[in-house]
Amino acid sequence: MLGTVAAVILRILSNPFSNVLQKKLTLKGYEPLSINFLSYLGLSLFCILFLGQIDLLNTSLIAYKYAFIGGIFGALGNGFLISALEKGDLSVLGPINSYKSVVAMLFGIFILKELPTVQGILGIFLVIYGSYFVFGTQKEGFSIKLLKRRDILYRILALIFTAIEAVFIKKVIMFSDILTSFVFWCWFGMLFSFVMVILKRSLIKPIFSDLNKLILLVFTTAIMQLSTNYVFNKMNVSYALALFQLSTIAVVIFGWKFFDEKDIKIKILGSSIMVLGSVLLILFN
């Protein structure tokens, strides 16, 4: 129990730090797909440290299959996320991630046979409802016009792809283990993020002057994914993703502290409603 709580806390804190670093790099002029690939490349090199602790030859082919599919959705999701951060406010884009738990719940029902409780559905509803306050700070309000904004659209695509990815990560863990799943996540993510760079003909700009930011991004992302895998191994995917929404408040605060974003009070109110929904999920899981 304590291990799961610690992993959730690590996940909640590491994700917003990764978002801040991703946005800082885009503001320095680095292309989102380039940042996406270099992040996965750094993570893949980091995985060399774990090769002696996993048995790749005896790992189920089913795990490889799910890791391959998950890698596609993961690379797409992270690519769209960084593209969204390049164009929009962190404190607005962060709360959109609340919808991921709903997407994951739907896919979890059909793929993992995970059935949510009535209390779980109520908690997810509150998580989503809180985002309405955040969207109300935008001139478009919560409307179709808002959803057509490129940063919002990219963020929605990112959450859909990463929610689908989460289901396949859980599958990989089921047929291997937490560490093997992490290594596969890094390697297949690197492969498909590189394919995206090639297809889009993106420029991989030398990043030596901001190498410290990239290294820190790799470190925070590694913590985020390892803690994610640990939590996925302990509970249903939809509930785990709902718990991760607790990072929403941190995202809003970071948007204010690092990028001087406005309307923080109302955004924190919306984020707090999301936290209430997450607490319901904790109590009734």
* Overall radius of gyration: 18 Å
- The proportion of residues in beta strands is under 5%
Task: State the oligomer.
Answer: single chain
Q: Helical amount among residues, as a percent range?
A: over 70%
How far the N terminus sits from the C terminus, by CA atoms, comes to 13 Å
How many E-type strands? Answer: 0
Unreliable parts? none
Structural class: mainly alpha
Written overview of the protein:
With 285 residues, this protein is mainly α. The protein has one domain. Helices cover 78% and strands 0% of the residues. It has 13 helices and no strands. α9 crosses α10. The two termini are 13 Å apart. The model has no long low-confidence stretch (mean pLDDT 86).
List its salient traits:
13 helices; globular; mainly alpha; 285 residues; 78% helix; 0% strand
SSE blueprint and pairings:
Layout: H1 2-27, H2 32-46, H3 61-87, H4 90-96, H5 100-112, H6 118-135, H7 144-147, H8 150-175, H9 178-200, H10 211-232, H11 237-244, H12 247-259, H13 264-283
